[in-house]
TrEMBL record, chain A:
InterPro entries: Cyt_P450, Cyt_P450_B, Cyt_P450_CS, Cyt_P450_sf. The keyword Nucleus does not apply. This is Cytochrome P450. It comes from the Bacteria. One of its GO terms (molecular function) is monooxygenase activity. It comes from Streptomonospora alba. Signal peptide: none annotated. The keyword Oxidoreductase applies. It holds the Pfam family p450. Belongs to the cytochrome P450 family.
Automatic annotation (TrEMBL), chain B:
Its cofactor is [3Fe-4S] cluster. This is Ferredoxin. Keywords: 3Fe-4S, Electron transport, Iron, Iron-sulfur, Metal-binding, Transport. SUPFAM superfamilies: 4Fe-4S ferredoxins. It comes from Streptomonospora alba. InterPro entries: 3Fe4S_ferredoxin (IPR001080), Fe-S_cluster_ET (IPR051269). The keyword Iron-sulfur applies. It comes from the Bacteria. One of its GO terms (molecular function) is iron ion binding.
Length: 389, 71
């Protein structure tokens, strides 16, 4: 084992919250694999191999040599708690509901959620917080519809998903909130058992209900809600903050519909909400002939890998929404690759241009430096975005 | 160009169906890849190569051209 260093694994540059700390780029250039100490709410501190190169991350995530390793709390029904054939079996029950076509078919509902959020911002007037009124409600609405969550329960849902991912809240409080969420999901599952709704959870109950326990079904619901809500809310908040720093880039997103797809990929690359992917070696594995021993923890830095120059000489820290598509690992790679990524893309493609078209002169009411970036939370984003127009 | 699928490898992420919807679809049942056009016309080759490259489980094989490299 080489030295355990103090690379802030999710650290961001002092002068720009979107860029990695220089140490991560140094780790990326290093031919040797570095071991660092990583803080974790679930595991306390642990030592881990850092992977910061795009090719390294992609290859280890693709080949199945890594397991999730209990870095997230175990939850029956949550795909992040499974590996191998058990994971495949469970995932296959859900993949039919998250195809590219189904994501496209949901566009009208997404547009409805976006319009409603824009109306709420307009009604609130200048000074409105886009995180509360736009970034969070849109994915919540969409995922709640997928799960058949009644409107009357949605505000409570949003609060719980926020709490569940906040580093500043005690472990006990997080566990309490998680328990409440599970209890609520159990109610939803019971309703679907009675009369399966025309939505993702209802579909799983109808097609696979005989193969799944109520606890597993509630876990599936819980996973989809958390995964579908906080990540997209955070990406939206970070993307809006980044575009407001670059008015020329914002103008492209606002004015050129043909640029939307590429712009969203570029924003996904830079604003990746999950900046580290913690795993554990399932056996002895090799990365570029360097060994990682069975049981060693491995942390992939999406933040660094998404800006891996490789053989290119472009500045990949710079936002360029017209850039030819760059590969990124924002949705991970391999068997655990994000189930909802096509849906996420459609949400971002609808929401961002609509925001800047409704409010063409959108700007912050505070200086950029005063924005509170969640640089130390599990999910990168911005806490609030007070705006005027 | 001829498209062949390693069906047992497909993990139903849907990048192919998103990138080249005229060539790939996904089954309603489990989301795994369905090839709509196994010998796509020239103007779709670029999209298909991109789809093969971005497939996270290397489930798409392309024949009748220089071997797809894993980037």
């Amino acid at each position: 084992m080489t030295e355990s260093g103090a690379i802030p694994i999710a650290g961001r540059a002092a002068e720009c919250p979107f860029d990695p700390v220089p140490e991560l780029y140094e780790a990326q250039k290093d031919e040797e694999l570095r071991r660092v100490t990583v803080p974790s709410p679930m595991l306390g501190e642990f030592d881990a191999v850092v992977l910061a190169r795009y090719d390294d991350v992609k290859s280890v995530l693709a080949d199945g040599g890594l397991h999730m390793g209990g870095s997230m709390p175990y939850q029956a029904g949550n795909l992040l708690s499974y590996d191998g054939p058990e994971h495949t079996r469970l995932r296959r029950m859900l993949t039919g509901s998250f195809t590219a076509r189904r994501a496209r078919e949901l566009k009208p509902q997404i547009e409805g959620a976006v319009e409603a959020a824009l109306d709420a911002v307009e009604k609130a007037g200048p000074g409105a917080d886009l995180v509360q009124l736009f970034c969070a409600p849109i994915p919540t609405q969409v995922i709640c519809e997928l799960l058949g969550v009644p409107y009357s329960d949605r505000e409570e849902f949003q609060r719980r998903t926020q709490v569940a991912l906040d580093f500043d809240i005690s472990r006990e409080e997080q566990m309490r909130q998680a328990a409440e969420m599970e209890a609520y999901m159990a109610e939803l599952v019971a309703q679907h058992r009675e009369a399966p709704g025309d939505n993702v959870l209802g579909r799983v109950v109808r097609d696979f209900g005989d193969q799944l326990t109520d606890t597993e079904l509630a876990g599936i619901g819980n996973m989809l809600l958390i995964a579908g809500h906080e990540t997209i809310a955070s990406t939206l908040s970070a993307a809006i903050a980044l575009l407001l720093r670059h008015p020329d880039q914002l103008a492209v997103v606002r004015d050129d519909p043909s640029a939307t797809e590429g712009a969203v990929e570029e924003l996904l690359r830079i604003c990746a909400p999950a900046t580290i992917l913690p795993r554990q070696a399932a056996g002895n594995i090799c990365v570029r002939d360097r060994e990682i021993e069975e049981g060693e923890r491995v942390v992939a830095s999406v933040l660094a890998a998404n800006r891996d120059l490789g053989s290119h000489d472009e500045n990949l820290d710079r936002l360029d929404v017209r850039r030819p598509p760059q590969r990124h690992l924002t949705f991970g790679f391999g068997p655990h690759q994000c189930l909802g990524q096509q849906l996420a893309r459609v949400e971002l493609r609808v929401a961002l241009p609509a925001l800047f078209n409704r409010f063409p002169t959108l700007g912050l009411t505070v200086p950029h430096e005063e924005l509170d970036y969640r640089t130390n939370a599990l999910v990168f984003g911005v806490d609030s975005l007070p705006v005027t127009w | 160009m001829k498209i062949a699928i390693h069906r047992n490898r497909c993990i139903a992420v849907g990048n192919c169906a998103a990138l080249a919807p005229e060539v790939f679809d996904q089954s309603d049942e489990d989301g795994t890849v369905v090839v709509l056009d196994a010998a796509p016309p020239d103007h779709r080759h670029e999209q298909v190569r991109e789809a093969a490259l971005r497939c996270p489980s290397s489930a798409i094989a392309l024949h009748g051209e220089t071997p797809a490299h894993d980037g």
